[in-house]
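Hi R.,

As promised on Friday, here is the backbone we talked about, encoded as structure tokens. Could you run it through your design pipeline when you get a chance and send me back a sequence?
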């Protein structure tokens, strides 16, 4: 990124205009024990060429660039066709802000409209916006959407969703007078305890949010959950961490789900050290007026030609002002654009092939690893592309260290999130794993007996 730094005279003029003695005065509100006055440890400035060389040397020290990774847990490595990068980097897509003037924004608006259409097709629901920040904040928006519609102040969330999603939801609602309850899961199946769910639903509860496949990779009984929640007059919200599963499993809408939220990073976005990612939300028509963000619609001009416009924009930057339902940033639409290009390029058959391969790779691992007596797959039924592997003979730390020596990053230690799973790791499989990669993983597991 090129930039023009302020000169000494520029900074002096700003100082006089603000009426401060030094730059330090701008940070007077920071407690003295929380600020750092001295920067003696910083290295001297480098010329641009030297700086680029320093970064190349630093990148060369990355120990994991040639490792085979089986990490998942909410961020997934998938193949991205070159066309996604090529088209999404075109200036007319990369640089626009908000398409307030539809007459000069038809390309961006159509891309957003196509994204919305494909997301509703994948989720089996009526409407989609374009779009949200990431999967965690999308889940929080889904809870708030359900509560705005129900006008209730209590909501239930599953105990086996991604723990970071739980934290985000609680952060969003902590000052809104909303009470969050947790529904237990069955430790034998990894699925929601339907009896506990039924027992915690009451007339004051706005609904229930669950994740499927859940954090352990297990597919929930979404239809039964929907019947239970609807029977108590609540709204059903399903979170999807691995969007690729939408092309393989029954769509949420067909299971009776009212609102589907999640992370669509798998659709054309690289892992990127945590972002930017793409949160999505789709819902039934009855939630249209309460949807956060923007909805692009199709219309015709006075000559009868097809055109696209911002149909609903419930952001505070627009006419809703203090009645806005969200402050979703405009530039998230670029991530939605990449998803639209990816989905269009893959098509129905391509997407189905990839999603099916993910499951088959996981199934192959589960079948083969059963031969080892010192490890065990915790949940052997109803998994999609992630499995929980329990290690009985060594610690998780030793297991992962051994795998790293073999050039393998073998999953997430579940005790980071669930202390009761202290001897387990979560492994993920995608179409990027060749059968020889999985056999190499199995061989390394066999060595550590």
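Update: got your reply. Pasting your designed sequence below so it's all in one thread:
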């Amino acid at each position: 990124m090129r930039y023009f730094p302020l000169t000494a005279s520029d900074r002096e003029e700003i100082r006089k205009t603000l009426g401060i003695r030094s730059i330090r005065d701008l940070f007077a509100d920071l407690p003295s024990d929380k600020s750092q006055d001295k920067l003696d440890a910083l290295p001297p400035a480098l010329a641009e060429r030297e700086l680029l060389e320093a970064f190349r040397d630093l990148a060369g020290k990355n120990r994991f660039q040639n490792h085979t990774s089986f990490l998942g847990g909410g961020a997934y490595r998938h193949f991205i066709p070159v066309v996604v990068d090529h088209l999404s980097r075109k200036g007319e897509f990369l640089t626009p802000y908000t398409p307030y003037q539809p007459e000069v924004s038809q390309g961006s608006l159509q891309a957003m409209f196509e994204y919305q259409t494909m997301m509703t097709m994948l989720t089996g629901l009526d409407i989609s916006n374009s779009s949200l920040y990431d999967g965690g904040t999308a889940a929080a928006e889904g809870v708030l959407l359900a509560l705005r519609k129900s006008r209730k102040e209590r909501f239930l969330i599953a105990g086996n969703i991604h723990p970071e999603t739980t934290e985000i939801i609680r952060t969003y609602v902590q000052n809104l007078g909303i009470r969050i309850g947790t529904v237990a899961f069955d430790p034998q199946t990894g699925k929601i305890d339907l009896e506990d769910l039924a027992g915690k639903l009451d007339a004051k509860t706005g609904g229930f949010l669950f994740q499927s496949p859940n954090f352990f990779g297990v597919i929930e009984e979404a239809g039964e959950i929907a019947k239970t929640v609807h029977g108590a007059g609540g709204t059903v919200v399903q979170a999807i961490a691995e969007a690729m599963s939408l092309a393989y499993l029954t769509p949420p809408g067909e299971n009776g789900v009212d609102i589907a939220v999640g992370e669509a990073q798998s659709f054309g976005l690289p892992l990127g050290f945590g972002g930017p990612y793409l949160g999505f939300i789709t819902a039934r028509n009855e939630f249209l007026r309460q949807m956060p963000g923007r909805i692009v619609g199709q219309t015709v001009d006075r000559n009868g030609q097809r055109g696209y416009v911002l149909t609903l924009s419930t952001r505070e930057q627009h006419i809703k002002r203090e009645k806005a339902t969200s402050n979703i940033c405009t530039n998230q639409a670029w991530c939605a654009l990449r998803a639209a290009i990816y989905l269009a390029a893959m098509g129905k058959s391509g997407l189905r092939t990839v999603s099916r391969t993910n499951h088959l790779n996981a199934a192959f691992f589960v079948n083969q690893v059963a031969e080892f007596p010192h490890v065990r797959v915790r949940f052997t039924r109803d998994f999609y592309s992630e499995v929980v592997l329990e290690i009985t003979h060594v610690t998780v730390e030793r297991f992962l260290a051994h795998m790293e020596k073999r050039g393998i990053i073998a999953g997430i230690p579940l005790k980071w999130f669930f202390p009761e799973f202290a001897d387990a790791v979560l492994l993920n499989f995608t179409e990027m794993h060749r059968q020889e990669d999985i056999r190499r993983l199995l061989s390394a597991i066999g060595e550590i007996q």
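One thing I noticed while checking it: The mean pLDDT is 92.

Thanks again,
M.
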